[in-house]
Here is the input.
Amino acid sequence: MKNIYKIVFTILLFATFSCEDNKDLIVSANGFELRKDATVTSPLVLTEATATNIFAKFEWDSANNGPATVSTYTLQVFDHNDVTLSNPVEYTGNGLVVSPTSRKGTLTVEEFNKLINGLPTYKCSEMDIDIRIKSLVGGNAANAFSQYSNPINVKVTGYSLKFPVMAFVKAGNTPSTEPRVAASAPSSNTDYVGYMYLDAGNYKFYQADACQDFTTPTIYGAGGTAGSLSSGASAPSISVATAGQYLVRVNLSNNTYTLTPFTSFGIFGTATRSGLGTGFQVPFTYDNTTKKWSLEVDLIKGRKFKFKSNLWTGAVVVPALPNPPYAPGTASTSVSILGKTSAPSVLVENSTTGQGDISVPGTDDGSRDRYKIVLDVSKPRGYTYTMTKI
Here is the structure.
């Protein structure tokens, strides 16, 4: 019996000290300081030309969480006017170097510009930005403990990462509602492109600012020669004589444009049939409301296809050919080809053989599956498709 009492006493004593130890492990926010390296002068205006330059260097103390703990750290930026601190953007690059003895961070102009572009309040003029470090203890997000350093404030003007856009505006309409062309990169002005349906009428191009705002647009109309542009609100209008689908391109380095009509989009490739005719288009139907092209079609499993726009000399005549029926190319002109990218369901202009092919799921055994394919080219430089098995 004495031995039993001793065992019970020992267990209670151990439990008492364990509870005391657990109390000691309760973490608390005791703060830590973030410092900016004064030897690095941050530019007031960020440019693509200085993208690889160092924007700033930082170092900070180990977070004091009360008991001895090991924190993980992230760098955050947020708009100084975001008083609720509800929309920070976290840095995910390789510029943070944390060791048991030091904690440092280095951001390039390009990295910092990307961070402020990610803020919902980003604008093309000067911004008031705060930078801070977040300390996190615990691997379970629901129970993790976090605290923050002091913020460091910078005033800076970034460069927009949005694609430059121009609206093709019919007389009497406003740019915000009209179809657009977009360039391939924030710094490009030579390769604006877009697919659109145009009514007959008079048009002008309206160029938005770097943040795609049309409040103070630059206006372009017809130039002195066919296919040329001249700037200014008083420039002559560009006449579209025939309503229909158009591929529109603009080059502002030489002030030229093209309006290339096309009849329809469709698919072509070995997935459509065996033997001859794989290069001819299987035409889709256009929906004026959704501004999308679609078709239900039988495709050979394991084989490939792409999208193509064509212009026929007359109406598209699809003869009763082997499944699926296609429109022969003898009376048509190929306007453009779209192929897939590494991103799911995203397309780009691509005419290189073997590049951008879309594969039909399954093994190539000659059998077919039926799919509904929907193509959306209404958003310039944002072409997408869906492929749903029926």
About this structure: Residues 1-24 have pLDDT under 50 and may be disordered. The two ends are 78 Å apart (CA to CA). The chain is about 10% helix and 40% strand. The CA atoms of residues 300 and 367 lie 6 Å apart.
